[in-house]
Amino acid sequence: MTDSEALNARFALPGHLRFAAGPGGLTVAEIANAAGTARIALHGAHVLAFQPRGARPLLWLSGKSWFAADKPIRGGIPLCWPWFGAHPADPALPAHGFARISPWQVLETQALSDSLTRLRLGLSDTAASRRQWDHAFAASLEVTVGAELTVALTMRNPGAAPYTITAALHTYFAVSDVTQVRVLGFDRCPSIDTVGGARTPGVQTGPVTVHAETDIIFSACPDEAQIEDPAWNRRIRIRKAGSLSAVVWNPWIAKAKRMPDFGDDEYPGMICVETTNAPGDARTVPPGGEHRLQAILSVEPLG
Ligand code: BG6
After folding, report:
1. Per CATH, the architecture of 3-301 is what?
2. Mutate to test the pocket of ligand 1, among 74, 243, 249 (most ligand atoms within 8 A of CB)
3. Which of 1, 30, 124, 229 is the most buried if burial means most Cβ atoms within 10 Å?
4. Residue 174 Cα to ligand 1 middle (Å)
5. Is the separation of the CB atoms in 83 and 91 below 8 Å?
Protein backbone atom coordinates (compact mmCIF):
# COMPACT_ATOMS: atom_id res chain seq x y z
CA MET A 1 0.00 0.00 0.00
CA THR A 2 1.40 3.44 -0.90
CA ASP A 3 1.44 6.31 1.60
CA SER A 4 -1.47 7.92 -0.25
CA GLU A 5 -3.53 4.72 -0.22
CA ALA A 6 -2.96 4.29 3.51
CA LEU A 7 -3.96 7.90 4.16
CA ASN A 8 -7.01 7.64 1.90
CA ALA A 9 -8.16 4.56 3.82
CA ARG A 10 -8.23 6.62 7.06
CA PHE A 11 -8.79 10.21 6.04
CA ALA A 12 -10.26 10.58 2.51
CA LEU A 13 -13.51 12.56 2.31
CA PRO A 14 -15.47 11.67 -0.83
CA GLY A 15 -16.38 14.82 -2.73
CA HIS A 16 -13.87 16.85 -0.68
CA LEU A 17 -10.40 15.46 -0.10
CA ARG A 18 -8.03 12.73 -1.21
CA PHE A 19 -4.32 12.09 -0.99
CA ALA A 20 -2.15 11.47 -4.04
CA ALA A 21 1.52 11.43 -5.01
CA GLY A 22 2.42 14.96 -6.11
CA PRO A 23 5.54 16.51 -7.65
CA GLY A 24 8.75 14.72 -6.69
CA GLY A 25 6.60 11.91 -5.25
CA LEU A 26 5.66 14.10 -2.26
CA THR A 27 2.30 13.20 -0.73
CA VAL A 28 -0.28 15.91 -1.39
CA ALA A 29 -3.79 16.45 -0.02
CA GLU A 30 -6.03 17.49 -2.90
CA ILE A 31 -9.09 19.39 -1.75
CA ALA A 32 -11.97 20.29 -4.06
CA ASN A 33 -15.39 21.42 -2.82
CA ALA A 34 -18.21 23.60 -4.15
CA ALA A 35 -16.38 26.85 -3.33
CA GLY A 36 -12.69 26.23 -3.97
CA THR A 37 -9.74 23.94 -4.51
CA ALA A 38 -6.39 23.59 -2.77
CA ARG A 39 -3.34 21.33 -2.66
CA ILE A 40 -1.28 20.84 0.48
CA ALA A 41 1.97 18.85 0.67
CA LEU A 42 2.61 16.94 3.89
CA HIS A 43 6.27 17.93 3.39
CA GLY A 44 6.43 21.14 5.40
CA ALA A 45 2.60 21.29 5.76
CA HIS A 46 3.03 23.39 2.67
CA VAL A 47 0.01 24.90 0.91
CA LEU A 48 0.97 24.64 -2.77
CA ALA A 49 -2.18 26.08 -4.37
CA PHE A 50 -5.52 27.68 -3.60
CA GLN A 51 -8.18 28.77 -6.06
CA PRO A 52 -11.70 29.93 -5.30
CA ARG A 53 -14.15 28.58 -7.92
CA GLY A 54 -14.35 30.97 -10.87
CA ALA A 55 -11.25 32.94 -9.82
CA ARG A 56 -7.59 32.82 -10.83
CA PRO A 57 -5.16 30.94 -8.60
CA LEU A 58 -4.27 33.06 -5.56
CA LEU A 59 -0.84 31.59 -4.90
CA TRP A 60 2.36 31.54 -6.94
CA LEU A 61 4.55 28.45 -7.23
CA SER A 62 7.91 28.53 -8.98
CA GLY A 63 8.38 26.35 -12.05
CA LYS A 64 11.92 25.79 -10.72
CA SER A 65 10.97 24.70 -7.21
CA TRP A 66 12.57 21.69 -5.66
CA PHE A 67 10.17 19.02 -4.51
CA ALA A 68 12.42 16.95 -2.27
CA ALA A 69 12.29 15.76 1.33
CA ASP A 70 15.36 17.76 2.39
CA LYS A 71 14.57 21.04 0.61
CA PRO A 72 11.96 23.78 1.00
CA ILE A 73 9.36 24.36 -1.71
CA ARG A 74 9.55 27.71 -3.53
CA GLY A 75 6.11 29.30 -3.60
CA GLY A 76 2.74 28.65 -2.03
CA ILE A 77 2.88 29.08 1.76
CA PRO A 78 6.12 27.90 3.37
CA LEU A 79 5.84 27.67 7.16
CA CYS A 80 8.79 29.36 8.77
CA TRP A 81 9.11 28.01 12.32
CA PRO A 82 10.46 27.94 15.05
CA TRP A 83 12.64 30.73 13.73
CA PHE A 84 12.15 33.21 10.91
CA GLY A 85 15.14 34.09 8.70
CA ALA A 86 18.61 32.97 9.70
CA HIS A 87 18.92 31.28 13.11
CA PRO A 88 19.95 34.09 15.50
CA ALA A 89 22.87 32.15 17.02
CA ASP A 90 23.87 29.47 14.48
CA PRO A 91 23.78 30.37 10.77
CA ALA A 92 24.54 26.71 9.92
CA LEU A 93 20.99 25.77 10.95
CA PRO A 94 18.37 25.87 8.16
CA ALA A 95 17.10 29.32 7.19
CA HIS A 96 13.47 29.90 8.29
CA GLY A 97 13.53 26.92 10.70
CA PHE A 98 12.95 23.21 10.22
CA ALA A 99 9.13 23.10 9.98
CA ARG A 100 9.12 23.69 6.22
CA ILE A 101 11.46 20.74 5.58
CA SER A 102 9.84 18.34 8.06
CA PRO A 103 7.35 15.54 7.33
CA TRP A 104 4.02 16.50 8.96
CA GLN A 105 1.38 13.97 10.04
CA VAL A 106 -2.28 14.03 9.15
CA LEU A 107 -4.29 14.57 12.35
CA GLU A 108 -7.82 15.14 11.04
CA THR A 109 -9.91 15.82 7.95
CA GLN A 110 -13.40 17.31 8.10
CA ALA A 111 -16.12 18.19 5.59
CA LEU A 112 -17.74 21.13 7.36
CA SER A 113 -20.30 21.83 4.59
CA ASP A 114 -20.53 21.39 0.80
CA SER A 115 -18.24 24.38 0.44
CA LEU A 116 -15.88 24.06 3.40
CA THR A 117 -13.19 21.42 3.99
CA ARG A 118 -10.63 21.28 6.76
CA LEU A 119 -7.29 19.48 7.02
CA ARG A 120 -5.25 19.46 10.22
CA LEU A 121 -1.59 18.44 10.19
CA GLY A 122 0.76 18.04 13.13
CA LEU A 123 4.45 18.14 13.97
CA SER A 124 6.06 17.27 17.31
CA ASP A 125 9.61 17.31 18.60
CA THR A 126 11.94 14.46 17.71
CA ALA A 127 15.57 13.64 18.51
CA ALA A 128 16.51 15.47 15.28
CA SER A 129 14.46 18.59 16.13
CA ARG A 130 15.92 18.56 19.68
CA ARG A 131 19.43 18.80 18.21
CA GLN A 132 18.42 22.03 16.44
CA TRP A 133 16.00 23.46 18.99
CA ASP A 134 15.92 21.80 22.37
CA HIS A 135 12.25 22.14 23.26
CA ALA A 136 9.19 19.90 23.52
CA PHE A 137 6.51 21.17 21.15
CA ALA A 138 3.28 20.18 19.44
CA ALA A 139 2.57 22.30 16.37
CA SER A 140 -0.48 21.98 14.18
CA LEU A 141 -1.47 23.57 10.90
CA GLU A 142 -5.17 23.87 10.21
CA VAL A 143 -6.07 24.64 6.60
CA THR A 144 -9.72 25.46 5.88
CA VAL A 145 -10.65 25.65 2.20
CA GLY A 146 -13.75 27.36 0.84
CA ALA A 147 -14.22 30.63 -1.04
CA GLU A 148 -11.55 31.86 1.40
CA LEU A 149 -8.45 30.07 2.63
CA THR A 150 -7.77 30.06 6.35
CA VAL A 151 -4.34 28.92 7.51
CA ALA A 152 -3.68 28.71 11.24
CA LEU A 153 -0.43 27.57 12.83
CA THR A 154 -0.90 26.66 16.49
CA MET A 155 2.22 26.14 18.58
CA ARG A 156 1.64 24.34 21.87
CA ASN A 157 4.17 23.92 24.63
CA PRO A 158 3.83 20.54 26.38
CA GLY A 159 7.22 21.00 28.07
CA ALA A 160 8.26 22.35 31.47
CA ALA A 161 10.10 25.47 30.28
CA PRO A 162 8.89 28.40 28.18
CA TYR A 163 10.07 28.71 24.57
CA THR A 164 10.31 31.71 22.28
CA ILE A 165 9.61 31.55 18.56
CA THR A 166 9.66 33.71 15.47
CA ALA A 167 7.55 32.52 12.54
CA ALA A 168 5.94 33.26 9.19
CA LEU A 169 3.16 32.13 6.92
CA HIS A 170 5.49 33.08 4.06
CA THR A 171 2.76 33.54 1.47
CA TYR A 172 3.68 33.90 -2.24
CA PHE A 173 0.82 35.60 -4.12
CA ALA A 174 0.42 35.41 -7.89
CA VAL A 175 0.20 38.87 -9.49
CA SER A 176 -0.16 40.13 -13.08
CA ASP A 177 3.04 42.20 -12.89
CA VAL A 178 4.66 43.10 -9.58
CA THR A 179 5.50 46.63 -10.81
CA GLN A 180 1.79 47.32 -11.35
CA VAL A 181 0.38 46.25 -7.99
CA ARG A 182 -0.04 48.21 -4.76
CA VAL A 183 0.15 46.69 -1.29
CA LEU A 184 -2.06 48.54 1.17
CA GLY A 185 -2.24 48.29 4.93
CA PHE A 186 1.23 49.41 6.00
CA ASP A 187 0.83 53.20 5.77
CA ARG A 188 2.59 54.81 8.78
CA CYS A 189 3.90 51.45 10.02
CA PRO A 190 7.50 51.35 11.28
CA SER A 191 9.67 49.45 8.80
CA ILE A 192 13.10 47.85 8.57
CA ASP A 193 14.52 47.59 5.06
CA THR A 194 16.73 44.48 4.96
CA VAL A 195 17.80 44.48 1.29
CA GLY A 196 21.42 43.41 0.94
CA GLY A 197 21.70 42.46 4.61
CA ALA A 198 21.21 46.07 5.80
CA ARG A 199 18.75 46.96 8.56
CA THR A 200 17.57 50.44 7.64
CA PRO A 201 14.74 51.71 9.84
CA GLY A 202 11.99 53.90 8.40
CA VAL A 203 8.27 54.53 8.36
CA GLN A 204 6.10 53.50 5.39
CA THR A 205 4.22 56.26 3.58
CA GLY A 206 1.27 55.18 1.45
CA PRO A 207 1.05 51.87 -0.41
CA VAL A 208 4.08 49.63 -0.95
CA THR A 209 5.12 49.40 -4.61
CA VAL A 210 7.92 47.32 -6.08
CA HIS A 211 10.44 48.67 -8.59
CA ALA A 212 13.63 47.03 -7.25
CA GLU A 213 14.59 44.27 -4.83
CA THR A 214 12.23 44.66 -1.89
CA ASP A 215 12.61 43.06 1.54
CA ILE A 216 10.87 45.04 4.28
CA ILE A 217 9.76 44.04 7.78
CA PHE A 218 6.79 46.06 9.03
CA SER A 219 5.81 46.26 12.69
CA ALA A 220 2.76 47.52 14.59
CA CYS A 221 0.70 46.40 11.58
CA PRO A 222 -3.08 46.51 11.44
CA ASP A 223 -4.76 43.14 11.03
CA GLU A 224 -5.56 43.51 7.32
CA ALA A 225 -3.39 44.09 4.26
CA GLN A 226 -4.52 44.18 0.63
CA ILE A 227 -2.90 43.63 -2.74
CA GLU A 228 -4.57 45.64 -5.52
CA ASP A 229 -3.93 44.23 -8.99
CA PRO A 230 -5.73 46.36 -11.62
CA ALA A 231 -4.68 44.27 -14.66
CA TRP A 232 -6.35 41.23 -13.11
CA ASN A 233 -9.15 43.36 -11.63
CA ARG A 234 -8.69 41.87 -8.23
CA ARG A 235 -8.03 42.78 -4.64
CA ILE A 236 -6.52 40.12 -2.39
CA ARG A 237 -7.29 40.57 1.29
CA ILE A 238 -5.00 39.17 3.96
CA ARG A 239 -6.66 39.24 7.39
CA LYS A 240 -4.51 38.06 10.22
CA ALA A 241 -4.46 37.23 13.91
CA GLY A 242 -1.68 36.52 16.38
CA SER A 243 0.67 38.80 14.44
CA LEU A 244 1.73 42.43 14.66
CA SER A 245 4.36 42.22 11.93
CA ALA A 246 4.59 41.44 8.22
CA VAL A 247 7.20 41.13 5.50
CA VAL A 248 6.90 42.24 1.88
CA TRP A 249 9.44 40.57 -0.39
CA ASN A 250 10.31 40.40 -4.06
CA PRO A 251 13.83 39.26 -5.03
CA TRP A 252 13.93 41.24 -8.31
CA ILE A 253 16.48 40.42 -11.01
CA ALA A 254 19.88 39.72 -9.44
CA LYS A 255 18.65 37.80 -6.38
CA ALA A 256 16.29 35.73 -8.56
CA LYS A 257 19.31 34.76 -10.67
CA ARG A 258 21.24 33.71 -7.56
CA MET A 259 18.47 31.38 -6.36
CA PRO A 260 18.67 27.96 -8.07
CA ASP A 261 15.03 27.19 -7.30
CA PHE A 262 13.64 30.47 -8.68
CA GLY A 263 13.42 31.08 -12.45
CA ASP A 264 15.37 34.11 -13.70
CA ASP A 265 12.25 35.57 -15.32
CA GLU A 266 9.71 34.66 -12.65
CA TYR A 267 10.05 37.64 -10.27
CA PRO A 268 7.41 39.86 -11.99
CA GLY A 269 4.71 37.24 -11.36
CA MET A 270 4.88 37.12 -7.56
CA ILE A 271 4.92 39.10 -4.38
CA CYS A 272 5.29 37.77 -0.86
CA VAL A 273 3.15 39.45 1.78
CA GLU A 274 4.03 37.38 4.81
CA THR A 275 2.01 37.10 7.99
CA THR A 276 4.75 36.97 10.58
CA ASN A 277 6.00 36.92 14.10
CA ALA A 278 9.18 38.60 12.86
CA PRO A 279 12.08 39.14 15.29
CA GLY A 280 10.59 42.30 16.87
CA ASP A 281 7.30 40.39 17.26
CA ALA A 282 8.67 37.14 18.76
CA ARG A 283 6.29 35.19 21.02
CA THR A 284 7.05 33.31 24.21
CA VAL A 285 4.86 30.28 24.85
CA PRO A 286 4.71 29.24 28.53
CA PRO A 287 4.50 25.58 29.65
CA GLY A 288 0.98 24.35 28.86
CA GLY A 289 0.32 27.41 26.71
CA GLU A 290 -0.07 27.99 22.99
CA HIS A 291 0.25 30.68 20.35
CA ARG A 292 -1.83 30.79 17.17
CA LEU A 293 -0.71 32.62 14.02
CA GLN A 294 -3.49 32.87 11.46
CA ALA A 295 -4.09 34.33 8.01
CA ILE A 296 -7.35 34.42 6.05
CA LEU A 297 -6.88 34.96 2.32
CA SER A 298 -9.71 36.09 0.05
CA VAL A 299 -10.16 37.76 -3.30
CA GLU A 300 -12.72 40.16 -4.79
CA PRO A 301 -13.06 42.29 -7.94
CA LEU A 302 -11.52 45.76 -7.71
CA GLY A 303 -14.43 47.65 -9.25
C1 BG6 B 1 11.96 36.43 3.09
C2 BG6 B 1 13.19 37.14 3.56
O3 BG6 B 1 11.09 36.30 4.17
O4 BG6 B 1 12.30 35.14 2.60
C5 BG6 B 1 14.18 37.21 2.40
O6 BG6 B 1 12.84 38.42 4.04
C7 BG6 B 1 14.47 35.83 1.86
O8 BG6 B 1 15.37 37.86 2.83
C9 BG6 B 1 13.15 35.17 1.49
O10 BG6 B 1 15.32 35.92 0.73
C11 BG6 B 1 13.30 33.76 0.93
O12 BG6 B 1 13.98 32.94 1.82
P13 BG6 B 1 14.35 31.46 1.42
O14 BG6 B 1 15.11 30.88 2.58
O15 BG6 B 1 13.05 30.74 1.18
O16 BG6 B 1 15.17 31.54 0.15
Report:
1. Distorted Sandwich (2.70)
2. 249
3. 229
4. 17
5. no
